[in-house]
Amino acid sequence: MSVQDLHGLLSNIQRNPGIPLDLDWVDLIRVNRSAVERRASTLPARRSVKKKYQIAWLLRAISCIDLTTLGGDDTPSNVQRLCAKARQPVRQDLLEALGAQELYLRVGAVCVYHAMAPTAVAALEGSGIPVAAVAAGFPHGLNPLPQRIEEIKASVAAGASEIDIVITRAHVLTHDWRALYDEIAAFREACGEAHLKTILATGELGTLTNVGKASAVAMMAGADFIKTSTGKETVNATLPVGLVMARQIREYEGKTGFKVGYKPAGGIRTAKQSLDWLILMKEELGNPWLDSKLFRIGASSLLSDIERQLEHGATGNYSAYNRHPMP
Question: With a threshold of 0.90, does the pTM exceed it?
Fold first, then answer.
């Protein structure tokens, strides 16, 4: 499928409006961990992408990156540098060497704290690159609910067109699905036209069955994307978790007709890992999830390693990381 065909297929995607909470559906979700782990282990082992095909897949991976800075030492200047990198993620000489100079290559979004959202919006003006702001008491989600809702509204008012929220993990751990649904639905309402990316913090949910149930409830409540992690947990994005979440997305589309996006985040640092996630999307969800409209990778250092692989593809030599610096 060509890039043009894929964009045409995705241009008419209807935003997930959510559905009433279906507890019978949630109760039926069961996950066999050993079966999931066996299937996940085949993804990097069974498929191998080489030479010009690898270059094409890596360029696609770049277009799906949510280029992220979520440090306590963030400053306007380093956010501006990150946005400059988002506008031109690969050196022009490399693109020319690869015959990709005609691509309008950019990342999927820039993800920052609320305080840096106005800076990012200004730096990306005219680029078409959305700003995603983390909100709702990120990363732990333990602030009072009214305060979390106001934070979302403030980020939208500051120009963020995507909001990455965190859930109250206790709702999942105690199986209070109504409370989880109501919380996410309130966040969706606060987002207005901005897209809601719901972080499940899967490394803190205890079981893969909990991950599956939380994924389903989040989509029922109107999440536009479901996302693995904040990047601050001990365990972040893993392929078994990705498989469980992807299959819930597939089931949700089958039952409702609405496509929901997916975003793994945390610990994805190498070009090889980015290919593993793209392969998971293609095999479990199909071509529409190979586009930034439905797939993102939350990362900061990943881009540098992809650039190194691209330079190897262009020259036959691996380069040092300092030739591809991040801000």
Answer: yes
